[in-house]
Amino acid sequence: MKKKLWGGRFTEQTKESVESFTESISFDWRLYKYDIEGSIAHATMLAKCKIITEKEKKEIVKGLKIILAEIDAGKFKFKKNLEDIHMNIESALIERIGEPAKKLHTARSRNDQVALDLRLWVREQIMVTYNYLTIAQQALVQKSKEHFGVIMPGFTHMQHAQPILLSHYLLAYVEMFERDKKRLLDCSKRLNESPLGACALAGTTLPTDPALTAEMLRFDGICQNSIDAVSDRDFCMEYAFCLSLISMHLSRLCEEWIIWCNDELRFIDISDAYCTGSSIMPQKKNPDVLELIRGKCGRVYSHLTTLLTMFKGLPLSYNRDMQEDKVAIFDVVETVHAMLNIFAELTMNTRFNGEKMKSACENGFSDATALAEYLVRKNVPFRKAHEIVGNIVRECVRMNLKIKDLDLEIMKRYSPFIAKDVFQVLGVENCVRNYKSSGSSAPRFVKNRIAYWERKLNKG
Ligand code: ARG
Hints:
- By secondary structure, this protein is mainly α.
- The protein has helices at 16-22, 25-28, 32-48, 54-72, 85-97, 110-146, 166-191, 210-216, 226-231, 234-260, 288-311, 325-348, 354-362, 368-377, 382-399, 408-414, 428-434, 443-458, and strands at 151-156, 159-165, 193-194, 221-222, 268-270, 350-352.
- The strands form three sheets. A two-stranded antiparallel ribbon has the order 1-2. A two-stranded parallel ribbon has the order 3-4.
- Helix 14 crosses helix 15 (382-399).
- The protein starts with 15 loop residues before the first helix and ends with a helix.
- Bound molecules: arginine (ARG).
């Protein structure tokens, strides 16, 4: 009978169906680098603590490095009957160097081992996400800069509300991505405690030094409760939540741009290289990339839901259910990275039609609020001003005119405070020019903000 590494008490061979059902090597092979890094640190600690000899440690480290190179080169054969990445590597080490390899698993369990590998993997992926966000921000800032001065309708309820600068709109997403980045760093800080030393769940009777492995693996410290250390996957859920928020932000923007490239609006033109056609309608050019980013958002949320559901009511400490965490976290990360990557590319390959935006803006009385504020400056209470302008708009609708095209005499009928200077506030250009509050679409604020982001994002 072929014995498993854990097969001491077993008298029967594991069924193949069980091996297939319980294996995780088909997906957790992705952890190999971290598993080996963790094992090298663990062996070094065991030697320092005189639990293994210096010579044994050297052989272990050498063997592990060879295995790492083999996996890197795609030459390593992963075996399903060895269950997971941890036992695939340990078995390969035993095959290669023999006796000393059998000491590697001293004062360690796969429970703290997998908790470690996953923390290291997530810690690194968080920085990858962070960098993708920076690239997306840079693309948006670049477009804001190129199109500084372009005026577009700002919407509420999907109706024209007030005119805004296109740059101001684009920078709204830069702010969102910045919050996403801060959330990631915060998540990274919280996960940065080493679970090694927890072993199965209760620690060990051997004289180990978990602080040493923690330091070698660049953790800020060690988990203070061994039961929690092997049970905790909060960091996966936090990360999946951060990724969900990122994809939610992306999906909002994609929805807008999908609308923006329809024939009615034509606010944007996405380059052909980033669109797809229809198999039946020859004239079609579809924004499938945007639609897929929007669509994949659902898949991203599903992984967060999977993780939360999997851990709901799960008793302490390690349970095999937890193996499924990796299916969710690997896919959610891969999906969001692909979304961010293609989004930045597409943005750089999109033309924004300033003319279309401006002319769309002329309709819909988006200068009405500016007129009300004009009256406020003439000491008319805002509620009263709101009503006066509402009446003027009604007149304009009746006469099919824009407010700025209305005769001054007609306007005066609605309020004696309206004078010739009203024409300095009407019209979309005046509206934008006259914004004052910080954070508004006022050109000088937007310009400052573009400069701010350029400085910040180029710092690296
Ligand atoms: N493949 C397992 C996982 O991903 C490793 C831990 C196995 N631990 C155990 N006690 N069976 O969760």
